[in-house]
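A reminder from the course coordinator: this example appears on the midterm review sheet, so study it carefully.

Given structure:
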């Protein structure tokens, strides 16, 4: 005897739901995460990172956490290392009672041979990812890289935009974070004996604070780094 139409639809819906649940339970975690957009790491207070500089009087701490190995770089779909880029997670913590301005900061990675590297703009990243032969600055030593051709995807654009440090201010008792990308192509061991200098941080009255200097050796020599 034929079943009523509503019973047929109900049974089909139940069967589809059970199939979906059973399939999801056996999928590896990365298969589920792969469908999601980029998620920026949750920043810890800046002083918890090995490489940081603290101004106790101003109650400001700035940290730099390089993403310089394949394990850390897995959060990105873009393989920045293959293009000669170094992502650095930049963290600013304000433990004071007044906001501070970071909208006009200047960040410079000064290598041990005194090369001064500034963060790449989104446009520079797009151009280099779409055309690996393009250079944002002269490279003193040619380094062979994997050939990557074609325009970047919308997903890659979204990943770059959503990952970058874009804060204009840091409110009292809070932390702001994001990535800065440096062109280190042609530089051997760019972090060794390097410093990350930060200027332009200003208090609530617009007074610029003393510059921050973050030694990258603190990161390289941290327990468990190697």
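Designed residues:
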């Amino acid at each position: 005897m034929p079943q009523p139409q509503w019973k047929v639809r109900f049974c089909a819906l139940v069967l589809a739901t059970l199939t979906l649940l059973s399939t999801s339970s056996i999928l590896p975690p990365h298969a589920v995460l792969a469908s999601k957009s980029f998620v920026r790491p949750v920043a810890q207070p800046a002083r918890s990172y090995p490489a940081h500089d603290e101004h106790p009087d101003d109650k400001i701490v700035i940290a730099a956490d390089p993403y310089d190995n394949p394990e850390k770089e897995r959060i990105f779909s873009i393989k920045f290392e293959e293009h000669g880029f170094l992502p650095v997670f930049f963290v600013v913590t304000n433990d004071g009672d007044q906001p501070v301005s970071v909208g006009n900061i200047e960040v410079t990675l000064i290598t041990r041979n005194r090369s001064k590297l500034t963060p790449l703009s989104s446009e520079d990243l797009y151009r280099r990812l779409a055309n690996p032969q393009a250079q944002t600055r002269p490279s003193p030593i040619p380094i062979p890289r994997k050939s990557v051709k074609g325009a970047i995807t919308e997903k890659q654009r979204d990943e770059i935009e959503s990952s970058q440090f874009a804060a204009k201010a840091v409110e009292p008792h809070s932390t702001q974070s994001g990535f800065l990308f440096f062109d280190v192509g042609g530089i051997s061991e760019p972090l060794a004996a390097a410093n990350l200098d930060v200027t332009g941080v200003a208090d609530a009255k617009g007074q610029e604070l003393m510059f921050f200097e973050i030694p990258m050796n603190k990161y390289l020599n941290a327990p468990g780094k190697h």
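Residues 17-35, 137-149 have pLDDT under 50 and may be disordered. Residues 130 and 150 are 5 Å apart (CA to CA).
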